[in-house]
Amino acid sequence: MATLQTWRKAYGALKDQTKVGLAHVNSDFKDVDVAIVKTTNHVECPPKERHIRKILVATSLIRPRADVQYCIHALARRLAKTHNWTVALKTLVVIHRTLREGDPTFREELVNFQQRGRFLQMSNFKDDSSPIAWDCSAWVRTYALFLEERLECFRVLKYDIEAERLPRPAQAQDKPEGAAMGNYVIQYALALVCALSWFVFW
Predict the structure, then answer these.
(1) For the chain, what is the total number of helices (H) and then of strands (E)?
(2) Residue 60 has what DSSP assignment?
(3) Which phi-psi region, left, alpha or beta, contains residue 43 (left: φ > 0; alpha: ψ -120 to 50)?
(4) 48: helix, strand or coil
(5) CB neighbourhood size of 171 (10 A)
C-alpha cells in the first residue's frame, strides 16, 4: 500500500512538472498557468503564498476582463479534470482566497461563469485511491458547496457574506470527518471558513 501511495505521489509530481513545462512553451498566459499549477499541485501542503499573489495580480482591477475570465476558466478546468482530492481542495482554496482578497471583478466574473457552467457543483467528486483520500473527498464536496452557496447568495442578494457580514448558519456536517480531521491541507481550508464564521458573528 505504501509503495502504491509513493508511486501516486511521484506520478502527481511528474504531471505537475509536465504541465508547468507545457505552460512555459504553449501558453499566452504562461505566468497565470504556471502559478495555477504550482498553487494547486499534488503536494499535501497549503498553496504557496507567492503563487497565490500572482493569481491575485492576474485577476486585479488593472487587468483586462479577458485576463480575469481566462484565470477563472483555467481554475475551473483544473478542478474539472482532477480526481485527486489535494488538487481539488487547493483549487477551491485559491478560489476562496481570491474571492476574499481579490478585486470585485473576480467575484462578478466568477458568478457569471458559475451560472453558465456550475463548475463548483462537485457532489459526485471522489478520490478513492485510499481510505484517507475517501474521507478528504467528503470535505472537498462540502467546501465546494460552501463556495457555491456563497456565490449564489451574492448573485441573488447582491451581498458578499464576508464583506457585508451576512450570517450563514453553521452546520454540524460542515466539519471534516474521519482521517480528514487531522490533515494539514484540510485544516488550512477549514481555517478559512472558520475565519469567515468569526468575522460574520463578531
Answers:
(1) 8, 0
(2) S
(3) beta
(4) coil
(5) 9
